[in-house]
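This section describes the prediction task in plain terms. A model, or a person checking by hand, is given the sequence of a single protein chain and must write out its three-dimensional structure as a string of tokens. No templates, partner chains or ligands are provided. The sample shown here is typical of the held-out split.
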Amino acid sequence: MEANNLQPSPNELNSYIFQGVWKRYDKPYFSRLKWTLGNFSALLVMACVTALIALAQAQCWSLVRYIITQHKKSPRLGDSGPDPLLKLSQSEAIAAAMPTLARWLSNVSERLPRRLRVRLRSGNNTQSQEEPVESPMFGLASLAIIIFFIIMGFTIPWWLTEGALGTPIVKSRLTSDCLESVRTDHLLDMLNRETRADEIFSLCRDELSGGCDTPYHLVDPVITKTRPTTCPFGGDICHPNTPSFEITHWNMSPLVMGVNSRSRVLMSQRLTCAPINLDPFLWKFKDGSVIYVPKISDGAIQLSDNISVILTTLNGPNKFSNESSGRLMFTEKGPLDLTVLPAFTAGTNYFGLPESLILNDFLQRNDSQSFLVILRAGLSKYSQTVDDPFFSAHNEENLIPELPEYIADYEATALGCIEQFKYCFLPSPRSMPCTEWGARNQEFSAMLHYLIFHYTGQYNGDVYSILEHTTDQNLLSANEMLNLFKLVPARFAIYDYLASRISIHKIVPLKRPKRIIEFNRWLDDNKEQWIIEVETWFMKALLSGILAIQDGALYSLLDPDPGFSDAYLREWKLCGRILFHSPDFTNINWRGLWATIIAATVIVLGGSLVDMIPERLEHCSKLVGRGVVNFLSFLKKLLASIPNASQLERQAGQVWNASLLFNSLSRVRPWYNGRPESNTPFDETEMNDLRASPTHPWGDDLNRIEEYSEVDNPI
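The expected answer:
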């Protein structure tokens, strides 16, 4: 599938999903390993787990039944043979406990209102009042086991599959095509896919609350909005009585950007905008004027499309003219467009070189990237007056009687914006582990410098070797700065979002009009529509950045330094680390799965062994008794063959009488108050023949066995 033919869909990367066990670094240790399977395969695995849990439930009953039997022996047991309670089923145990439960319910009903108490008594008068033969503990334990394993049968598969009904986060697989790809070979693909965020938002008619971008966010972004009362620029060029608008996206981790990473570096992004007066940037030019943003040092203006906008009028009413430039351009059918100055790419500095473009003193700031967003209203008209300073419209135009419309006041209006970035490193021992707010290249270089120069290990002179073979968090984060964060400012910047769509894609990135006629615009807010536009740009740029990083699963977004080895590229290249949602797959907690299987298997084996205990004990006791009798018979014959055997025979007689004791012990004796079974004869004379065996003191120096257990190595 060609990358540039992929449609804007959450499932567009399904063919690139890695199916197997992988490690998700943002999760805790126990849930870090994920096993990604297709939905049908995952369903089969969970069916097997559920069946194992059901089998464990039956064997758990055998264990609990045996424990209760040993703790509370039955008074109705026969003499030999296994205890019948060890064959008691769960249904029989519950039925035997019903009279006790009914009596408890009757006691509870005494505290209920009289009418309800009569109903309960009438329903319970048919119950047997006899005490159950088996202890009610069997029934209560059976009910507890059934309820517990029913709950576990639902909760364990739910927990292992991260909720099952949600859309899991999966990882891309590492392909040879991606490893061998070169960034320059995919520039056209990148451009063709650049407007996908706009197409996705258009499905919700650019409404931020529509949820069209929700499937693409791995975690909810932390965004704050404030209204500073100060102007972000000097010289009082902001509109009076109009607070600025500041929107900030805090702590963007690699997970927010869609990358599986061990790095703990976080990036924050801030945009501050305010409506400004264009007069300080306006110069007369021929019959009209020009908006010029660079600093004029020698009094000469060098017109260029990326640093200036030529207007047809003097943009009055202003210091140059009292004529309404907005009405004039409506009459002359002027253009409707949006322009960013400096234009793409005059306002960017991707390579960290000294800035060559110095802006007007009113616009220049050393701690941020400054730019103007200029709107030319053209034929735009509104059904009511617009007090918004960016879309200002008070000129009444009665094209249709009794239906007045209003056209723009100026040919051009502008917003002044500054964009800033900040990087934080949480493992840093500093009290303030973050850089200052600043321009993209400045703060990137500051964080990279801090990570490398605060590495505490020994430097062997080979920076490639150190970066490749390290577990130090400083250098791991430095690797991520070089492979991911170097891309991020250009992909997520609002300036880049606006500049590329205006200069390259030739679109006007304003909210879609709510009416069919393009120029008959319907604003959401007649007083502060500009704030809605700025917030929309911010959210579209965020989604556009996420989608641009996701393209790393298809081809190389950044050509790595050739000094690194192939093993380094396989570990750090984005191809095998991209994270995204896919409803066609399921993640299973790998460690949790094995913990469940082992626990259930132990219960099953334990229950099976318990079921074998009575028969094994009876069989073993018979074998031991027969062996003792045979040994004593052999000993008697041996003594008879020895001279002076008469005296030894008398001693052996005592031993032979002792053999009767072992012979008796070889039988399974009845419990207290027991009675013999009908098919077993009771030989009273044999019981009377037993004599007290001579006492033989045991030695006190028995060998002791030191028990120990091996601790499994953690996975």
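For orientation: The two ends are 38 Å apart (CA to CA).
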